[in-house]
Write a structure and sequence with these properties.
Strand order of the largest sheet: 2-9-8-5
Number of domains: 2
CATH class of the largest domain: Mainly Beta
CATH architecture of the largest domain: Sandwich
Strand content: 15-25%
Oligomer: single chain
């Protein structure tokens, strides 16, 4: 019975090691081919250094490496002291608290998301029947594809960002009044991000 249990434990442990190893290899492969971006591993979306992320990363690596060395040296899984688990919990919870404080400020959320995609020009006057070229930048992922849309108002825009204003209205609008169009740009790189440009037709 003990022999059968040992074989079962060995097989189960081997399968789990293979699964974890395969998962780790898959992550490394995704990093290698560029599907996982590590450029913001210890920085905020704006590019500023993040001490909370750096602390969590270093502390996690220290604990994981220490546990690995102990297992290799003793050939058995040690009993992890409660103080170590407490420190791990404090490190993780402090990171969550700092993130909660950061995103409790709506201005902070707006400034961070505003960096995901930026349209230029943001506000411009265009004559009826004229064309205007818009451009968009994705600072956190240069070269990312963008999508253009006339969200409101008249006119058309193609996927290169070239806006074509509608022909003049008939009869003409009263002096001092003008129609508007709102241009929206999005990117698949950041599905929740967008930026707007306002066109005044003159």
């Amino acid at each position: 019975m003990d022999r059968a249990f040992e074989i079962l434990a060995l097989v189960t442990g081997s399968v789990l090691c293979l699964l974890v190893g395969g998962f780790g290899f898959l992550i490394l492969w995704e990093i290698w081919v560029g599907n996982i971006d590590l450029s913001k591993l210890i920085s905020e979306p704006t590019g500023d250094a993040s001490m909370s992320r750096f602390q969590l990363l270093v502390f996690t690596f220290v604990i994981a490496l220490s546990l690995f060395l102990v297992v290799v040296a003793t050939q058995e899984v040690p009993n992890i002291p409660g103080t170590v688990l407490t420190l791990l919990g404090i490190s993780g919870s402090s990171y969550l608290v700092s993130k909660g404080i950061q995103f409790s400020d709506p201005a902070g959320i707006t400034s961070a998301r505003g960096q995901d995609i930026v349209v230029s020009p943001g506000k411009i006057s265009v004559g009826y029947g004229q064309k205007q070229q818009f451009t968009a930048q994705v600072p956190n992922k240069p070269g990312a594809a963008v999508k253009w849309l006339v969200l409101a108002g008249d006119g058309t825009i193609d996927q290169t960002g070239l806006y074509v204003a509608p022909p003049p209205p008939s009869p003409p609008l009263p002096s001092g009044t003008g129609a508007h169009a709102t241009i929206q740009v999005t990117t698949d790189a950041f599905p929740d991000a967008y930026d707007l440009a306002v066109v005044t037709l003159v």
